Amino acid sequence: MNVLENHPLDKLNTFGINVRSKYLVEVSSIDEILEIIESEKFKNLKKLVLGGGSNVLFTKDYNGLIILNKIKGKEVTYQDTDCVKLLIGAGENWHELVMYTVENGWGGIENLSLIPGNTGTAPMQNIGAYGVEIKDTFIELEALEISTGKIEKFNKEKCKFGYRESIFKNEKKNKYIILNITLKLNKNPKINVSYGEIKNDLRNNNIKSPTVKDVSEAIISIRKRKLPDPKKIGNSGSFFKNPVVDLNKLKNLQEKYPNIVNYQINKNEFKIAAGWMIEKAGWKGKTINNYGVHKNQSLVLVNYGNAKGIEIYNLSEKIIIDIKEKFGILLVREVNII
Fold first, then answer.
1. Which fold has domain 4-69?
2. Fold (topology level) of 74-186
């Protein structure tokens, strides 16, 4: 196990921010994790676990130890005629995992195709897209507590999942290293094509009885049209959460903005499309020097080349202030700011 010093991170975060970490180490087993966290040299140093680097914005050099989680493996732990339980190492690439389940005809996460990052980070923010969240198929995960070296199991309730939220983004932030997750997938899947874009794509391809593969391919096509490839343009996908408002607030907004895009959650809660508000406020496609808001998706902030993380952060702050002034809604960042 090789600990690197003063290591550049531009290739390890999808924003491509050029900062450095005081120390960096790659781990591929529990034993290696224990070895590094119990080391006298690193025991009292602050630590950050990095998977695919897809949900982080570095605003400065990291004065600590970054642990790259590379624990691999996929194992069927149970199956019957209806379902399969799959244990996945935290270092597995998320999209490759989705493709593996789609190839096997197992349903449940096909709507989460092409989401960047690794499997271990997926439950941290309860990743979701097109009407599906990881909590819908989640059974449990195993995580190692950094301060004690003890391994704990977290079921769905213990993870405290919310909209792009979990216990690991709040009270347990930076206190655990996720080792693996277990998902329950359906052998007789219920197809979710509730979003109009998916329906339109399937209709355009004359698909009337879609399979999980059809849905996955439709979503990949949609995401490629709407979202920039982080390998070409630095970004972390959606930078902001879609805010949730009550019925009274929605009615007030609709008086001024009759076409405001919203999705009903329950009788009194509605999700407002943050991208719609950002576009309405005139930010879509706005470029400042070598960074800005993407031209096709206003939820996505982009680094066109050599932008500083603090510049992108300040841009997000300006957008938050503007949306608050115009709509009376406080946007919340999805991205982890370091």
1. 3.30.43
2. 3.30.465
Pick the CATH number of 234-337 from 3.90.78.10, 3.30.70.920, 3.30.70.120, 3.90.1200.10: 3.90.78.10
Two tokens at 267?
Answer: 């009788």
Q: What is the pLDDT of residues 101-160, one digit of tens each?
A: 999 999 999 999 999 889 999 999 899 988 899 999 999 999 999 989 999 999 999 999
Coil, strand or helix at 155: strand
Q: How far apart are CA 211 and CA 217, in angstroms?
A: 10
The answer to whether the beta carbons of residues 20 and 6 sit under 8 Å apart is: yes
Q: pTM higher than 0.85, yes or no?
A: yes
State pLDDT tens for residues 278-319: 999 999 999 999 999 999 999 999 999 999 999 999 999 999
Which phi and psi angles does 4 have, rounded to 5°? -95, 145
Return the active site residues: 164, 238, 334
Task: Report strand pairing: 336-337 vs 56-57.
Answer: parallel
C-alpha to C-alpha distance for 246 and 59, rounded to whole angstroms: 34
Of the candidates 285, 276, 292, 287, the residue with the CA atom closest to the CA atom of residue 326? 276
